[in-house]
């Protein structure tokens, strides 16, 4: 039995992402510090020149970006004729779009032509690093994030639907042109989202296999539990949303042309490594062991990683605890080198 409501009527039944007030003089550092719940900041980047260009239309926004674009290839995802904008798997679990590279001017010329002909084409430039692909764009359209040193990316495209996924860094996403709909789920909802393969993904992160436009509760009955705790919001140009680390988010570009700028940062030093890599290694080394062996390793993980209390190190001289002590960049580097050697055997 599929859910009767589809499209926007489905999201209309969900709770809204809370909105927070912000003080232009004080910035938003205090709101972001320690935040573990999502919230929306209306009009946060309304004064950006990019936002102003977008209000004049898609072509004006594209011209503005071209004025700052570097002469280098841009990676682009393109759907076949008749593509509905959902960048996902096909019936054979291959991607339902192709990936290519080209000059930004040529990619935008294709969008111009499609608009002139009234054609619906799916064109999506995802997670383009701004400093390496544009000159002056970051400086002209900036935001004060305190002492954070974020990665800054831009997402450009036609009407698109990006399956629910999560990211390890915190994320401040700013709608610069068009409109975006976000549907969010807390980290604990992963069991109810029917996640797909880890190593075969549309964009590097595992995604929900549920079609959010027409959820099929016969095939995905636990998704009803996910819907019960979902949050949704539509962003207009100038609005921003904070998505905390590991929150699942489904993202739709609702206008004919859309631009999103986002900032990613970690709460912990980058030299600590990526938790996803540890999960992948655990699948390789532990998941397929006999049940009794897995139980032993579960206890060891609890002891060394998840509980990690004084019982681990109190009996060892402080100067001899090595990687059992809180990691530093030096000890993390030694551990990484050890892992690389072990994985290469």
Automatic annotation (TrEMBL):
Domain JmjC: 119-282
Gene3D superfamilies assigned to the protein according to its UniProt record, in alphabetical order: Jelly Rolls
Domain of life where this protein originates: Bacteria
Name the UniProt record assigns to this protein: Cupin
Organism: Sphingopyxis bauzanensis
Lineage: Bacteria, Pseudomonadati, Pseudomonadota, Alphaproteobacteria, Sphingomonadales
